[in-house]
Amino acid sequence: MINRFVFRALSLASVLVLGGYGSTLYADETKSEITLASTTSTQNSGLFDYLLPLFKEQTGIEVHVVAVGTGAALKLARNGDADVLMVHHKTSEETFVSEGYGVERFDVMYNDFVLVGPDNDPSGVKETETIVDALGEIKAKQAIFLSRGDDSGTNKRELELWKANGDNPKTASGSWYRETGSGMGATLNTAVAMQGYTLSDRATWISYKNKQNMEILFEGDERLFNQYGVIVVNPEKFPHVKEEAAKIFVNWLLSEEGQSTIASYKVSGQQLFIPDAK
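^ Sulfate transporter, sequence as received from the core. Prediction below:
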């Protein structure tokens, strides 16, 4: 039996042949619209506005993106309200698959997180050696830190980094730690207004226009690695999932063409995502 997805580095044409779908399925699938539950970072960065028109041109498949935090995207998919999931918290993604909600998870691309704040750097995080130390200095100085507080992949990583230092900022005294309960763009706006620190994915930061005196103050720690994965929602659990169109989309993302398209997307001359499908 052929692997359900036959994903690795296949062209769209070979996907259709290997899957045994034939020209009739292709004609049917060109009329499809699939729902992709994904993150605010992929949407705010402009990546989907760049990728999806090309995918539709080649396949006729319309991709409707619901851009929310990773936690909310996972919830949508667990409720059967999406055909494909593309988020950035690997542990949660693997749990999603192991519990039967997704068929298989694939790496698709990565970038990293960065700690941004006002250029006068009141906590001196530029002088620290690790991101854990940087957060420790923010807490020690009681400097304002803006957390997304929305169970997104960025929020999950932020809380993991605090925990690595033995901290739980939600229970800390003082008003220095603020939760916005919103996406990355809105959280950056709040950080600018309050002159506070925040953790951002690099793609959203590069795309963000209202930087004012804010800048990247810490980057490069291996703990800031930010992997994105893609999963087709399990049609055995949710029979209404448009499995074949979803498979075509995922295969395209992981194909040589999809990966090169991801790599070619730039803002202000800077590449936002590094493709890494295996």
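Confidence is low (pLDDT under 50) at residues 1-27.
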